[in-house]
Design goal:
By secondary structure, the chain is mainly alpha-helical. The protein is built from five helices and two strands.
């Protein structure tokens, strides 16, 4: 019987903060919340990379692995981002700015912009 002696492997989670308080995956401009949202909806890492072509498959796997190991800080981040977006929406509503563009359309445009990059 053959055994394999593997050295412990440390993988850096490829996240960067740009701008402050907003996390992006790897060297792409893809938001962490888009990757995690797609994963939570059941998309595979390969499917996520197909949707956002500037992503690197290893980066997506690393982010998802880290999320699965300890989801709580990621879920807090996602909750904070959602609260911030709700606050901005309320400010726009209070100011009388009406947007006829829904969240899904904005996400579609963001994906299209990533594909063009």
């Amino acid at each position: 019987m053959t055994t394999v002696d593997l050295e412990p492997l440390t993988v850096t989670v490829p996240l960067r903060e740009d701008p402050p308080g907003v996390f992006r995956v790897g060297s792409s401009r893809v938001l962490l919340e888009l990757v995690l949202g797609a994963f939570k909806r059941g998309e595979s890492p390969e499917g996520i990379v197909r949707s956002y072509r500037t992503l690197v498959l290893a980066d997506v796997y690393a982010v998802i692995s880290r999320y699965l190991a300890d989801p709580e800080p990621f879920d807090r981040y996602l909750q904070d981002r959602e609260q911030e977006s709700d606050a901005v929406r309320r400010q726009l509503d209070d100011a009388g700015v009406v947007s006829r563009i829904g969240k899904e359309e904005l996400l579609r445009r963001a994906r299209a912009k990533e594909l063009d990059s």
